[in-house]
TrEMBL record:
Sequence similarity: Belongs to the glycosyltransferase 87 family.
Keywords: Cell membrane, Membrane, Transferase, Transmembrane, Transmembrane helix
Membrane-spanning parts: 40-60, 146-167, 179-209, 215-243, 250-271, 316-335, 347-364, 384-406, 418-438
Topological category with respect to the lipid bilayer: Multi-pass membrane protein
A GO cellular component annotation in the UniProt record: plasma membrane
Name of the protein in question: DUF2029 domain-containing protein
Organism: Streptomyces luteoverticillatus (Streptoverticillium luteoverticillatus)
Length: 497
């Protein structure tokens, strides 16, 4: 049964000083008698339209490249910070020739050493669908431009899905999705690659989980993992949180749906058969073998260490895997020992951020993975904008660094030392937001989402569930009877055995 409080939307201009200051541009903070959503302009529609508008501005930012910067090795795509993989891979992965991903080998003359498409299956399908909608007439340059436009249209639809899903995940906090809609790094990186497809599926999975639809949530996680690897990490937080709440059946249902969905889209391309039997298809496995063999690359902690020490870090896979395992164990301990069960969005953000921080490459568009999770985990404008400033700085730095190395003797752009500093700024910005989320978990009374007595608005079956398995101080607190004031401040159920 929903209470009257559930229908009262949280107004960011009331609880957030930065949002209140920013609202002065459009007339000031909302009044007590304002009718929110009384007409067509509901919060979800406003947020979706603002996300579409910001996406359009991101497309405008790519105009210098659309005219000529993507072609003939021009450094304009770096000096104007408008690079995109999309037009380059139209020819570079054989889409202009009608090659079928994972089945047809890419000619050496166009693949640049890549014999098969190095993306997961659903991303490959996304790219193939865009290629089918791209007209085949005209010059290669013209078709590459059209291919980028077709993909941009499809990614725009993904952006709208992300905005709507984030706005609806917390029923009383739709305006938190403005963080996604207005995120500058989101707009700047949206059309670099195809990551928004996986981000949209992940956002939809979190929305379904918040509604208690565990099977569909798991299916969407599996589909998202078939488009990009990182969404599978969400199963870790779900396992720990369901364990603490004694709801393992919900986790097993979601995990089963994820495995089934992933297999459903991968199995048709996974195996090939010849006279000697069944074998893993080389084209399907390319994403995994390429990820394994890829050396230390741009934007990562490991590149900074390698360049500063002169060590090529040939064992970086071992180092990164060990750090990821240790980090996940630490997050598991945090979830089980915290005085109150963490919110799903908090742990989801932390585990994906951990993956980003220890990965051996950090492409600028990886920030897209974190933006929706950050908006749900810690919807505070000041901290979000501090992090976004660090990401925008890195976005500019990577292109100016490539311009510096690609402009011959002119050296237009950033030298190595300045680029290394930008890497450090990016890492520190992400760590800053992670530290604040961890603080909110350890001191739940400081969590802005829980100030009104909510437990876990995006938690689905976990929202308001009692603690069953806890460790350390959380175990002692679970057996302590909270005072009436504590029950009011912290909501109901989360500390009751």
């Amino acid at each position: 049964m929903r209470s009257a409080r559930d229908d009262q939307l949280v107004r960011p201009t009331v609880e957030d000083e930065v949002a209140a200051a920013g609202s002065e541009l459009i007339g000031g903070p909302v009044g007590r008698r304002a009718l929110i959503g009384a007409h067509w302009w509901t919060p979800v529609r406003v947020i979706a339209l603002m996300a579409i508008g910001m996406f359009a501005l991101g497309m405008v930012q790519k105009l210098p490249c659309y005219d000529h910067g993507w072609f003939f090795g021009a450094t304009t795509q770096y000096t104007h910070a408008c690079y995109s993989d999309i037009p380059h891979l139209y020819n570079g992965r054989g889409f202009d020739q009608g090659l079928i991903p994972y089945l047809d080998r890419i000619p050496q003359s166009v693949g640049g050493g890549m014999d098969y498409l190095e993306y997961p299956v659903l991303t490959g399908l996304f790219m193939e669908v865009a290629a089918l909608f791209t007209p085949s007439a005209g010059s290669l340059q013209h078709r590459e431009q059209l291919y980028w436009f077709v993909n941009a249209g499809m990614l725009l639809a993904c952006t709208a899905v992300i905005a709507v899903c984030v706005a609806r995940t917390h029923r009383r906090r739709p305006w938190d999705a403005l963080l996604v809609a207005l995120a500058p790094a989101f707009a700047l990186t949206a059309t670099i690659n195809w990551d928004l497809f996986a981000v949209a599926l992940t956002a939809a999975a979190m929305l379904m989980w918040s509604r208690g639809r565990t099977v569909l949530s798991g299916v969407l996680i599996g589909l998202a993992a078939a488009a990009k690897l990182y969404p599978v990490l969400l199963l870790g937080p779900l396992l720990v949180l369901c364990w603490r709440a004694g709801r393992l059946r919900a986790f097993l249902t979601a995990a089963g749906g994820a495995v089934a969905a992933w297999l459903a889209v991968n199995l048709p391309l996974m195996f090939t058969h010849d006279a000697t039997g069944f074998h893993i298809r080389e084209g399907w496995a390319k994403f995994y073998t390429f990820s394994q063999a890829r050396p230390v690359d741009f934007g990562s902690l490991w590149l900074f260490i390698s360049e500063r020490t002169g060590d090529p870090l040939n064992d970086v896979n071992v180092y990164a895997t060990l750090l990821m395992i240790l980090g996940c164990l630490g997050l598991g301990a945090l979830a089980l020992r915290a005085p109150r069960r963490p919110r799903f969005a908090q742990l989801a953000f932390l585990v994906v951020a951990l993956f980003v921080l220890v990965n051996k490459v950090y492409s600028p568009q990886y920030v897209l993975w974190l933006v929706p999770l950050a908006a749900l985990a810690r919807p505070k404008w000041r901290d979000f904008l501090v992090w976004q400033a660090c990401e925008v700085l890195y976005f500019l730095a990577i292109w100016f660094y490539l311009a510096y190395n690609g402009s011959g003797d002119k050296h237009q752009g950033l030298p190595t030392e300045a680029y290394q500093l930008a890497i450090v700024v990016h890492l520190l910005g992400t760590l800053y937001l992670c530290a604040l989320v961890v603080r909110d978990i350890l001191k739940p009374e400081r969590d802005v989402v829980r100030r009104d007595g909510s437990d876990d608005p995006s938690g689905g079956v976990l929202d308001g569930a009692p603690d069953i398995f806890v460790l350390g101080s959380a175990r002692r607190e679970r057996h302590a009877e909270p005072s009436e004031g504590t029950r009011v401040a912290w909501g109901t159920g989360s500390h009751d055995a």
